Amino acid sequence: MSAAPIDLPRWADTALVPLVSVAAALAVAGLVVLSIGESPLEATTLLLKGSLGSLEGLGFTLYYTTNFIFTGLAVAVAFHAGLFNIGGEGQATIAGIFAALACLWLAPLPGLLLVPLAILAAAAGGALWALIPGWLQATRGSHVVITTIMFNFIAATLIVYLLVEVMGKAGSMQPETADFPRQALLTPIHELLAAFGLTMPSTPLNTAFLLALASLVAVWALIYRSRLGYAIRTVGANPRAAAYAGISPARIIIVAMALSGALAGGLAVNEAMGVQHRLVLDFTAGYGFVGIAVALMGRGHPVGVALAALLFGVLYQGGAELSFDKPTITRDMVVVIGGIVILFAGALDGLFRRLVAGVLNLGRGG
Amino acid sequence: MELVQTLAVILDSTIRLSIPLLCAALAGLWSERSGVVDIGLEGKMLIAAFASAAVAHHSGSAWTGLGAGMLAAVALALVHGFSAITWRGNQIVSGVAINMLAAGLTVILGNAWYGQGGRTPTLEGPARFAELDLPLAGTLKEVPVIGPIYDIAISGHAAPVYLAVLALVLTAFTLKHTRFGLRLRAVGENPAAVDTAGVSVAGLRYAAVVICGALCGLGGSYLAVSQSAGFLPQMTAGKGFIALAAVIFANWRPVPVLFACLLFGLLEAIAIRLQGVVLPGIGQVPVQAIQALPYVMTVVLLAGFIGKATPPKASGLPYVKER
Prior knowledge:
Chain A is mainly α. In chain A, about 75% of the residues lie in helices and about 0% in strands. Chain A has a single domain, classed as ABC transporter involved in vitamin B12 uptake, BtuC (Orthogonal Bundle), CATH 1.10.3470.
């Protein structure tokens, strides 16, 4: 093993390495399926059919994709600043609380005002919950990884307290808020299409998906085409050089974390305002952690994040369909695949780069 | 007398709740003192809990279960070592991966093998660790103060509890007073110096990671085969992260780790006891506030508002040998 970085052509670095590591991850997942006595081939067929084989399946797939785009972008933006934000779950939780408060308190407002305000509230909540760890890292030197982990748990206990003791629906034993007012809900895509005379089966897919697509473009423009994005990437690459160039790393760390948290808040928008229509416990359901896999697989680039989010959307929806036919293969399979993808595309990146470099060199006869 | 009795009971449950934390925290201590950051303590405990419960069920022996639990956790620890030490990957990323792998795999395998929603079958008889009565517990019972505390709190735990205490003593001694311990601490502070002295950096770090796995295995197995009578999905419930907090709280030193774990265990014991209790003047105590306390305290400590956290210098940095 040499200490020198492994040189790869750009296309191999951005496309081939992630593809190889994801293929390897899926192969390992296939082995897990095999080990519990099922056929990986049959499972794959069922999975693809369930997620892409029908309009209804596709709607569900894109609904899950929406969540992964938000959490993946959140991790990716922090990555560009050289920060590891594991706090997506907690940030989305606080975003959900803020969105719910906005929807319930501002209920008399018309939808045209209420929806944007509630989305902004969600973004503000997520940003706040990420900004504090960012601020602590920038000014007090406490590591953002540990702080965001702790903040995940603090948010988890906070939402239990609020839903059970404070915001809970009167007369309900379930830890959930009252239903949001009708005009606060995001329009389902099938209703939107019906307005244009197109028919689509009813699915949870809603306009938050369009918000996610807009976020992809916005993050691309921010990171690669704006002054702030340049500053973020510079701090991520070399904080000392950034400081020398007149960029304040402390300020950029705080801003990048706040942006990251605001993006994680999109998860709450999709789940609470788009699908559940109220705030429920545990709505984050591990999406925040899978977002890490999405960002690593997508190499932090919005195009990569979109593709990776779609892959996990397919796995999530296909996995749900699969577990109907094969009760032994539960949705937890996606968590396993997410874990292996993080391991292969993230932690073992060096190994896969070396493998790819070796194969490419063989091809060149040297 | 009544008061002593109550205190002894609280101390007893504090010890029970602290032991899994202590095991995982010592595990994290070993790993981090060697310079390998490990946020995968949770995942290793979880896989150990599952493996120990499954094997204890099939073999009918709690000890075999414990062995299997430790092996499973060591296997995951080696995955972490492989990516963090051999391939110099990002240690945080690897830790996240291990947590997710364990969270998913345990439920999938448990569901496929036993079909009880991820649980393992209930353990009975010798498949579960029995409570051990320490010598003289019965005789000393009548002695005021010391008697009940010894009888209720110190005696009457299962074997893994005493093993964990032994692990603490061994950890403190090895790290401080042996050549291996000195080198291991050195590799976490200045790996280049250790390398120059002709000692293998990777070898020492792998040793630390394996010890870390074994200790996580002890903690996880205790949860499934002693505290509970089997595995429940996600039964570690964040204990691996509280343990991580305890390591930070103790400033990466073994004996303070014990006190940090006892403190966090006590908080948990109090939270359980106060569930739904209405205190005069305060009203119902929000249990969640007590549950969140370890996390809040760690954030405050890390921010340097009380004391100062000084992690090993080389922690989290892959070692690149210069040529």
